[in-house]
Structure formats: structure tokens, C-alpha cells
Amino acid sequence: MKTTFGEYLRQLRTDRGLTLTQLAAQLELDSANLSKIENGKRDFDEKRLEKLALTFNLDLKIIKTEFFSDLFAKKICENNCSIETLIIAEQKVHYRNNKKTRQTEIKFNKE
Q: Residue 60: which residues within 8 A CB-CB, separation 6 or more?
């Protein structure tokens, strides 16, 4: 089972032997705010994902997967949605990606 994004962040930090203050400084955050993020009382700012990936020398895709999957799970739980919501969301992702591809092809063919 995966953890929340805050728990994931805490695990990254402790695995590297960083204090809250050290990591907060690298992410340009207040250590109190970082503590709240790790404890699930505050959300991590999406704008800092790239900086987080660089700090831990991780692929940005991995960080985004952890962040967005937790964000989606949180919204689904808060709104008492069924798991079917995820199935439909996945279908919509495929639809949107295919739609973007088709639009790119149309623009390219017009030129």
C-alpha cells in the first residue's frame, strides 16, 4: 500500500538523513509548513515538484505520480466517490490524449 504524499516526503527526507529544517531550506519552505505537509495538515505546492525531484535526484515522473495519485485519492475520499470514478477518469485521460494527438495531426496537415 502506498503512503500519502506527506508520508512519502518524510520517508525521502529521513532516508537521506535530512532534518525538517535542512529540507525546508532546500525547498524554500518554512520548516513548520514542511512538518504540516508531512503530517497531512497542509498540501504540498505543485510548483515545488521539480525542485523536490532535483533535491532527491529522482525522476520528475516518479514525484508527479506520487503527488497526483495522492491528490486524486484525497479528492475521491473527501467526496465519497466510488472506485469507478478512477476507471472513468482513466478513460477520459486516454480520450484527452487521443484528442490532443488528433488536433496536432490536423494542424500539421493544414500547414
A: 49, 50, 53
66: left (phi over 0), alpha (psi -120 to 50) or beta: alpha
CA angle 34–35–37, rounded 5-degree value:
65
Reported pTM: 0.81
pLDDT in tens, 14-49: 999 999 999 999 999 999 999 999 999 999 999 999
Task: Identify which of 81, 74, 58, 88 has the alpha carbon closest to the alpha carbon of residue 2.
Answer: 74
CB atoms within 10 A of CB 27: 19
